[in-house]
Amino acid sequence: RLAEAANAGPVGGVERDASVRGDSPSASTHTPPRARAPRLSPGALPRAPGSTPCDQRPGILAPRPPSAPGAAPRAPHPRSGRSLLGAPPRPPARAGSRARRRRRRSGRRARPPAAARRTPVAVAACGAAHGPAAGLASPRAPAPRPPPRARAHAPLLFCQLTAPPPRPAAPAADQGSWCLCQLNGAADLEVSEADIISTVEFNHTGELLATGDKGGRVVIFQREPESKNAPHSQGEYDVYSTFQSHEPEFDYLKSLEIEEKINKIKWLPQQNAAHSLLSTNDKTIKLWKITERDKRPEGYNLKDEEGKLKDLSTVTSLQVPVLKPMDLMVEVSPRRIFANGHTYHINSISVNSDCETYMSADDLRINLWHLAITDRSFNIVDIKPANMEDLTEVITASEFHPHHCNLFVYSSSKGSLRLCDMRAAALCDKHSKLFEEPEDPSNRSFFSEIISSVSDVKFSHSGRYMLTRDYLTVKVWDLNMEARPIETYQVHDYLRSKLCSLYENDCIFDKFECAWNGSDSVIMTGAYNNFFRMFDRNTKRDVTLEASRESSKPRAVLKPRRVCVGGKRRRDDISVDSLDFTKKILHTAWHPAENIIAIAATNNLYIFQDKVNSEMH
Amino acid sequence: MFTRGLKRKCVGHEEDMEGALAGLKTVSSYSLQRQSLLDMSLVKLQLCHMLVEPNLCRSVLIANTVRQIQEEMTQDGTWRSVTPQEAGRAPLDRLVSTEILCRSAWEQEGARPAPGLGDGHVQGPVSDLCPVTSAQAPRHPQSGIWELDGPREDRGGFHKSLDQIFETLETKNPGCMEELFSDVDSPYYDLDTVLTGMVGGARPGPCEGLEGLAPATPGPSSSCKSDLGELDHVVEILVET
C-alpha cells in the first residue's frame, strides 16, 4: 500500500470552463445531467433566473466541464471581483441558490419527508463516563418505513443517504456514540482533483458550515432549524450556497501558475443579517459577504415587471412600489480582495477578536490586515534570512488568541511555537514566549525534524491552551508553560517504523489539522485510511473512527477501529501494511457548541453527530 | 551472516572475518541506507513541478535532512574527497556546497527563469539552476543571487554527474561485499565532482544590492560565452522593462 501511495500522484490538470460557475442559467447547458436533474415536485415554484434550487445538491461538487481547447492562461474571471490589474469591478454575478426553508413551509416537499429518512435512533448503551444521564436504554423497535422515493438522477450520485431498514442497537462505543448524520459527495471511484475538499470550517454559532475545495469553490451548508414534527431529530445541513471563490491565475513574472485551491476559510463574527467569511488560496485573500434576499420591490412607475422602461404615455397614475415576498435567494459577493501581500504561499489566516483586523501567514512572513483596507498590510513577523542559503525554518501555521487581540501564536517547521505580543513592537521578531519540547534522544533519526514540524495550531476556546499537531502526535500546551506540552497523544505511533517509506512517497509531509470540541475536553485529528481519532482529555480515553461509505451506515453508531501492529489481532483489526495512505483525513472541524463534527475525506464531506451526548461535558 | 558467493579464506581466520565482516556489514548497511536516503533527498529536491511552485516547507525540510546526513558523514569521515583539486579544501566548503545545492530548490520560490532564456538551456532536473530575470527584482528583492554565467557554465557537468548518481541508484543491488563497497564509492565521487563544479561556478552576491542588473563578477570560468550571456541578460532586462 505504501508503494501504491507513492505512485498515486495528483490527477492531471483541472478542467473547467471559465464561463460556467454552476449557478448561472447558462450553466444548465454545460453541466452534465446528473448535476441538474430536477428534484422539484410538479407543484414546485419556478426557478428565479440566476439561481439554482437549493434542492439540487449535486454531490455539492459538480464536475466541471472541460475547458475550451487551447485556452490561454486566464486573467482573473470577471465575476471573481476586482481583477488584479485594478480594472473597475464588473457587477458581481449573483451566485444564487435557493434555501429550502421556504419551500418546506409551503408544504411542497421536493424530497422524501424527513420522517422517512430518519429512523429513531437506537439508543446505544454508553459508558458511565458520559454522565449520569447516560444509561442503558432499550432500543426501540422502529416502525417500518416506506421505501424512499426513487430519484431522477443517476444512482451513483449521492445527495442524502436514505436510511436502510433499521438495525438493533450496536454495542456501546467507548467514546460516545457517533453516527453518520449525512454524507455529501460523489461516490465515483474516479475523483476529479478539483473536488478534493481542502478546508472545512463551522461559523461561530455552528449554523453554517463552509467547505473549500481544490477547484477554488466554496460550498456553504446551513443547518435547518429543528422542526416541530420531529423534536428528537436535530437539523441537518443543507447546501446554502455554492460559489467560485478563486480562479487559477498565471504569474507571468515567474512563469508559474497560482493554484486556485482554497487553503483556508475563516468566518467573521456575525454583526448584522449578513454572513461574511474570508477565503484564501496561495496568494490572495477574499472577503465574501453572504446575504439573503426574500423580498423584491414591485410596482415601479417607470419600469415594468421585466424591467423595461414603460412608455410614458401609458403612465396615468403614480404608485408607491411595495415589497413583495419572493423565493429566498442567497447572494454572495466579494467585498474585498487582499492581493499582492505575500510572496510565498499563504498557509493560514486568522480573524482577530477585535473583529477589525486579521492576519495571514505564509512560509516566511505574517501580515496584519484591516478588514476594510485592501491596499495596505502590516508585516508583523518576518523570518526570512538575509541570505536564503541560511533558511532552515519556515512558518507552518498561525492563529490569533481568541480573547486577547494583541496575542498570536505561530508554529514552525522545527516544532516550535512562538507567542507574540503586538504591543511589544511593530515587528514581532522577538517572541514573548517560545514553546519548544526538547528532543527525545532515544527516538532520534534523520526524520526527527520532519515529524516534529507542526502542521496545525489551535487555541482552545478558553484561550488557556494550545493544541498542536505534528506528524505522529497531538500536543496540548499550557500558555503558562513553555518547557514542554502538558499532554501528548499518539495519533498513529505505528508509523514510526515506517518513516522511511513515508518519506519516499511524500506522505511524511502531509499536513493534518486538529480541532477542539466546544468545551475543550475532547480533541480530534485525522489520520490515514480515512481514520480519525478523538482523545478525551478528562478520561484519557481515545477512539479511532472511520469515515467511509462502507462502514458508516446512517443512524448506526460508528464502530471503533483498531490498527494492529503484530501481536494479537482481533477480527476487524487492520494491519499497518494494509492502511491506505491515499485516503487521508487532513481537515476536520467541530461544531462550537454541540457534538457535531465535519470530516473531509478526499471529495466527501461527512457529518457525524453524537446524538446521545449532544451537550458537551 | 555471510552473503552468498563469498568464499571463506580459511578456517582459522573464519571467526575473525565473520565478526569483522558482520560488523562491517551492519556499518555499511547503515551507511548504505544513509546514502540512499541522501540520494533520495537530492532527487526530491531537484524534481520540481514545472507549472506550480514547489512547496517551500517541504524543500526546507528535505534540505535540512540532506544537511544532517552530510554533517554526519563528515563526522564519520566517510565524506571523502577523491579529486586532486579538492586536496586542500576544508570540509566546511563541502557543506557550503550542499547549501547551494539545496538552495536551488527554494530559489525557485523567489526567482524563476524567464522562459527561453539563453541557448544552452538544459532541461531536466538542472533547469532550476537557471538564472533569474531582473524584472522580478522589485517584487522579490532577495532573488538575483544566482549569477548568470557560473551556473550555466557548470550546468553540463552537474547534469552529467546527477545522471551518474541516478544510474547508481538504479543499478545498485546488494550483491557481494566487494560490489557493495564499490557501489558506495562511486556516488561519493560523483557528488563531490558535482558539488565542486557548483562551488567553482557560483558566486552568491548580496541580496539587496541586486536590482536586476547583471552581476559584476563573472566566475573563474568567464569567457566569451559568459559575456554574451551577460549581454543577453541585459537585453532581457531592457525588453522586460
Automatic annotation (TrEMBL), chain A:
Any GO CC annotation of this UniProt entry: protein phosphatase type 2A complex
Biased composition (Basic residues): 97-111
PROSITE patterns: PR55_1 (PS01024), PR55_2 (PS01025)
GO MF, any single term: protein phosphatase regulator activity
InterPro entries listed in its UniProt record: PP2A_PR55, PP2A_PR55_CS, WD40/YVTN_repeat-like_dom_sf, WD40_repeat_dom_sf, WD40_rpt
Membrane-traversing stretches: none
Signal peptide residues on this chain, from the entry's feature table: none
Region called Disordered, residue ranges: 1-151
Keywords: Repeat, WD repeat
Biased composition (Low complexity): 112-140
Family in the record: Belongs to the phosphatase 2A regulatory subunit B family.
Entry protein name: Serine/threonine-protein phosphatase 2A 55 kDa regulatory subunit B
TrEMBL record, chain B:
Keyword Cell division (UniProt): yes
Top-level taxon in the UniProt lineage: Eukaryota
InterPro entries with a match to the protein in the record: E2F-SERTA_domain_protein (IPR052262), SERTA_dom (IPR009263)
TM annotation in the entry: none
Pfam families cross-referenced by the UniProt entry: SERTA
Single GO BP term: cell division
Protein name: Cell division cycle-associated protein 4
Organism: Callithrix jacchus (White-tufted-ear marmoset)
GO cellular component: nucleus
Keywords in alphabetical order: Cell cycle, Cell division
Domain SERTA as annotated: residue spans: 30-77
